Sequence to fold (81 residues):
Amino acid sequence: MPPELTHTFNRFYVYNMNSLYRKCFRKTLRHALRDPKSCLNPQNNEIYLLGNLTELQFHFHLGSIHLPKETSSAQYYPPRF
Fold:
């Protein structure tokens, strides 16, 4: 990303990560911690990892953002074991 663009970011919100994305994101964060100028360095920005719809609603009004209809109307069902 261009440096002038990365300086405008204050927060990153990541919603509903799958396991492959988590692996990639952890690796990216490890490299970002080494670089103080990185836009993903926690000293420069806030990073929110949202795991469910309730956490997403805490930060956003779902009617005001453009999400797929399945996401905004999703209900939380606990996993069955």
In short: The first helix runs from residue 3 to 6. Residues 14 and 49 are 5 Å apart (CA to CA).
